[in-house]
Amino acid sequence: MPSQFILVAGPLVRASSWEPTAECLRVAGCGVQVPDVLARDYPPPSWRGWTSRLLEHLTTCSEPILVGHSSASALVADLATKVPARGVIIVDGDVPPSQGAAFPVRPALLDFIKGLVEADGMLPIWSRWFDRDQQRKALVGLDVLANDPAAFAQFENGLPRLHIGWFDDAIELADWSHVPAGFIQASPIYDHATAEAQRRGWPVVNLQGTHLHPTLHPAETASAILSLSRELVSGEGQNVSG
């Protein structure tokens, strides 16, 4: 089983959202990197420039499994063509095209966030997007996280405020369909992505939780990552063009 993981957070949150899961993987004897682009990049880089910043934060390791949460799904697909990745695991994110243009968010979510734009074109930090939508807030897991004020404050620390124009950018993915891939569904938000992963013949794990499962339930998330990794390395996880 591979012992090297690179856990990538989406640009809307900090890498600290992965740290609880990362610690569980380390306890299991794995090497784990959690690159934090937002730790020293302000303003945040463009969407198409994000992968280059990730590479600057990484140290060389042997055949890592790349794990991307949420909008980092396209980032790990892009990384998989730039590092000798042994596999890709997407956690509660859209399944990127096998090659071609990948945008930060799908059109339905972009329509939603356009309704949050302030007069200067800026958006609130991600954790405040759902203040008026309690159902979505619960699906994300923000209501549970907010029950612990200290944990919530730590989560919100350093979250970026992005201009709505930032979302118009695209990453041009090179063909990554040769890389074994798997999918972990954490919330009902990504039923559509699970269906696409299954169509491609990927192994899928459904945790039946919330979008912030890697933060709120790290042991279960780590277990799912380890399980899928075994499948990918054994050759059971196949990627097909889509």
What can you tell me about this protein's structure?
Helices cover 34% and strands 13% of the residues. The chain has 242 residues and is of the alpha/beta class. It has a domain at 4-104 and 170-234: 3-Layer(aba) Sandwich (Rossmann fold). The strands form two sheets. The protein has a six-stranded parallel sheet with strand order 2-1-3-4-7-8, with helices on both faces. Strand 3, helix 3 (72-79) and strand 4 form a beta-alpha-beta unit. The longest helix is centred in the last third of the chain and has 17 residues, at 218-234. The chain is globular.
Q: What keyword list fits this structure?
A:
two-stranded antiparallel sheet, 242 residues, globular, 34% helix, 10 helices, Rossmann fold, 8 strands, alpha/beta, six-stranded parallel β-sheet
